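Example with several molecule types.
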Amino acid sequence: MSYTSMDPIPHRHWWRLPVGPDEKIWIAVAYAWCLVMLVWMVGWFFVGNQNQAGEAFKVTLDGFSNKSDQMIDQYQLKDASGNLMAEGETDVPVVQVPAGGNVYIAAHQFEWPIIPVLELGKTYVFHISSLDVDHGFSLLPIVLNLQLIPGYDYVLRFTPNKTGVYRITCNEYCGLGHHLMAGKLYVIDTAHGVVLDGKGGVKGGEIGGAI
Amino acid sequence: MATAILRNPQDFITCPDTGQNLNKPAISLAKANIFTAIVFLLAGGALGLLVALTRWPAIHILPSELFYIALTGHGAAVLLFWCHFFEVGVAYYFVTSPINARLATPKIAWFSFWLMLIGAAMATVMVLIGQATVMFSAYPPLKAHPLFYVGVILFAVGALIPMFIIIATLIKAKNERTYTGSMPLASFGILIYAIIAIFTWVMGAVIMIPTLLWSMGLIHNMDAQMYRVVFWALAHSTQQMNIVVHITIWYTLAAVLFGARPLNEKVSRMAFVLYLFALQLGSVHHLLSDPGSSFAWRTFNTSYAGYLAVLGSLIHGLTVPGGIELAQRRRGLSHGLFEWLRKAPWANPVFSGFFLSLVLFGFLGGITGVTMSNQQINMIIHNTVYVPGHFHGTVATGTTLAFFAFSYWIVPLLTRHKLAFPGLARMSTYLFGLGMGTFAVFFMAAGHLGVPRRHWDITYADASLPFQFSATVQMLVTVAEIGAVIGGTGALFYLISILGTFMGKTVEKGALPPLAEPAGVVAARLHGGTEPHIKGLEVPGSLVLCLTLLTFLIIYYFAQYKYLATIWGIR
Amino acid sequence: MADFDSPTENPEDADPVSGWQAFMDDPSMLLFLGIASPTLLYTLWGVMEVLSVPVAGY
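Resulting structure tokens for the full complex:
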């Protein structure tokens, strides 16, 4: 009598049938690896430098927008002749918050509202959220991706480790202009003369050009 | 196969080729559901081709608005409608024929079929006329026309009802003693699928009904994050249902091709029960780079309560090929590690589709899925084209390819029509597997370099602060889309062959010829005997395949963390 | 293997089957497990997580 996976089991006590050596070996090896992954993931939370669980707060769209506006008013950079610095056709403000400060990214259809300027090796408190629909914050070329949810302030401490010009793209579909949503971010190192060149670049920066 | 007692023989027809008893109402329903699935595959596949030809940088065929419409339609038509019509259809077969059961309440099953069809058609039309360009995920506050949500709800309710019919059929068969002992593994897999589906479609109602009311203006506040939590219990689980069905199909095809049985019933069923308990927890994989949840909830759920569902998958990964290997070895194909596999019927699309699905699902979908669901790794791939790369590894080269292979067996069985265009069928599995496999690999590579998903124009030609992806990235995307076109050709060959089969002529006998030359005959020809040489391990070849997969997984996993460690500090 | 394919047990054997085996033969128990587990551990816990996000005051 021969049966297959398509037939009722012809054994009354199939639970008692012995498990073969191959299956025993594989189950042991496979689950050992599973436990390694579990321990590694939890361990990284405590000793790793990259963890996005972070903190979050419920906010109002207007309240978050005001925070962002106040930050721009206070920290938008000025060029050598005293004009406020902004780039692109839509005059996106270039903003440098002091190290340790709060950087608000209030994304909206179809624009990243500021071009942040950060100092190498300093830690900043980023608040990322949306003023309308879900957006995706994708920082290139390091490919760091976070989800932006309207009404939720996602609070994460960022410590940049390479100077230069970074790009931000939206990678959550946010409407018919989704593909227009490209932004920018600078990391400078003033102490070593790596500073904005005034032409949309960073003098001596490690990152730049095509992604 | 089934040797149980046949009650009410007037409700059955006996297949002259396989000897199976087919319950008449169940096969009519199975045919209707599978045929509808194929129509949606045709529609969804055509939209997918347009998406591919738009993302191919040198062609860029659609304007932006049509691109986003096509992408939304592609997702809904294949992820939901193709997979789930097909699954309901084959489930009706799996809970009747193998145990000589009669389907419970066929009239209600027909009612639910029409609900699904009306819902699916309504949602598809709303997408195609540009009233629901919100993607498959439809995250509020993006809003679609209320009729889109009505369509999704009708479909979900229509898909929920059959799950109760499936369970009722199994209970009734047990009570009527149409079989003795425990149900076949294939039917057990479908029971697990039905239970997961009940959770899934109930979650669908829980989230889609408030969303409908919101789109009609009857509710004003729709919490965007709350939606995501509950929506993914629906949407992720719809894809877990696919996995459970395609694994059931793997076991089934191993049985019909090679007479394989589970290596051990306890182990294989336990792997399904691990899915039942833990697989749906993976819904959190979509929320790992979101605000608003604790490390504890993320960790518990993303690891499926301690990687229990991953363990389940790894077990199936051994026991499915292991069942074939054991069956082949016992009939004499037992030389070396892989004679059982080399001498398998590679020219038969039922086998080639099945085995390619098994390998590609493991290596492309499985390894990447396990890696990207590690909490911290998620943040370096979230929402890049890595994600569609991964799920084409699971849904296209895993589920869809398994469904192709299964169609080449089940459609002739149900219709009593000979398989049409067998030459196209033979090519379809290879073209689709290799084409979609290429797409998956190259999209994942492009995703690692940051290409955003759901995106019409990665040249940012009209952006205020434009930038360029490098020539390397453009090349990766181009190769991926070439893969998509090759895969699409394979799908087209499948559609021609299966639609041709549906439209073929009924034959008395021989609609379903033997799928493979019996292993004993092959073995006698090759080495003059059929005596198995088995010493020590039962299935060493399958164990080697599994250890190879695990080695790739370990290397890939640590490579991701190695990269992660080089980026900014994030806390 | 040989004994696997030609069972020697008497099908009328009165010896009760193992608890696990009975569990896997019982759709209602499986249904309970399959619904309760993700509903409690994923959905309800997840909804509580979102509800417990503190309000920032702006």
